[in-house]
Structure formats: structure tokens, C-alpha cells
Amino acid sequence: MPDISSPVAMLLLWGAIGYLLGSIPTGVILARVMGLGDLRTIGSGNIGATNVLRTGNKRAAALTLLGDALKGAIAVLLASAFASSYDAVQLAALAALIGHCFPVWLGFRGGKGVATFLGIMLALVPLAGLIACAIWGLTAKFGKISSLAALLAAGWTPIVLVLIGRGDLFALATVLAILIYLRHWANIARLRKGTEPKIGAKS
Questions:
Q1: Do the Cβ atoms of 158 and 174 come closer than 8 Å?
Q2: What transmembrane ranges does the database entry give (predicted)?
Q3: How many Å apart are CA 37 and CA 126, to the nearest integer?
Q4: pLDDT of amino acid 200
Q5: At what angle do helices 86-101 and 114-124 cross, to 10 degrees?
Q6: Percent of the chain whose predicted confidence (pLDDT) is above 90
Q7: Dihedral through CA 78, CA 84, CA 88, CA 93, nearest 10?
Q8: pLDDT category, 2, cuts 50, 70, 90?
Q9: Is the N or C terminus of the chain more exposed, i.e. has fewer CB atoms within 10 Å?
């Protein structure tokens, strides 16, 4: 009989916990509860806060943003409190982002991971998380393009971690950033063409 208390088993357990937390489709649930319809048939079809905003319901968008961030933060905080190794914490963080991007409940068609990424960073290293949030918020406010804000926040985070003395998380942050960039591949193409929609645009 396998030893469920072994280090490998514990890593798998926290990976599963992180994935299941991350895969909770916050935006889809809120859209249905608040009578906004099936979020996957609205705007871009994405399940994140930016697409919820396209419904015109700012409250639902804000709650989606908060909920998606909390998924990542809770995965990290639970692992930090109960896991026996920091490797498990990092795996829970990675799995939470993967869960959001590829949730089993939605046929592995999820969001782009920005809010969950920010929640993860706020829980792992609050200062780095706050800087990432500031980059995201300022870019969104003045640039009016959600994807650009996400790409800059994710791209700068590994560098910020090194600068503040948390280079031990550089690899994790880099992998998370790469995943976000891959999820934004179509957005990057539109940014290069100058056709990326502004925040709040209907399509």
C-alpha cells in the first residue's frame, strides 16, 4: 500500500488542492447568480473579470476579480499553513493558476489567470504582489487595455522578486508569467496590430 504521507504524495495532494481551488469558475457562477446569463456566450467568451465587465455590471466584475484573486491566495495560504515543505506551497500556487486557466468543470476552457496570479503573489510575497497590482492598476487606468496591464504586471514580477531579495521564487514567477503570456497570445497579436479593444468595450 502506498505511503500517503510520503513527500511525493504530499506534493501531489497540494497540487490537487491548488488545482481544485483554482478551477472554481468564479465569473461563470456570479454571472448566473446575478442573472447575467452564460458568461461563455458573452463578449470574448472568457470567464474573467474583464469579460464580466462587458455585461455592464461593474459589481459583478469586481466580485469576479476578487474571487479569482482569492482562489490563488487561499491555495498559497493553506499550503503555507499546513504543508511540510515550501515546494508544496509553490506547487499549490502553480496548480491554482493552471486550474483557473484549464478548469476541469468547463472542459479545460478557462480564463487567462491575471487575478489569480495577483492573488498568488500577494499571498507569497505581499510586497511583490502589491507592486504587481500597482503595475496592473496604473497600466489599466492610463492605458485602458486590460491585456497590456496583465502582461506588464506578470512580466515584471520575476524581476521585482529578485530586486527585493526573493530570487528563490524567480523560477515559479517566470513559469506563471509564461503561462499568462501563452494565454494572452491572441491579445499580443492584436496589440501588435493596434486592434486590441479597450477596457469596457463590448467586444
A1: yes
A2: 12-31, 60-82, 88-108, 115-139, 159-182
A3: 35
A4: 60
A5: 170
A6: 68
A7: 20
A8: very low
A9: N
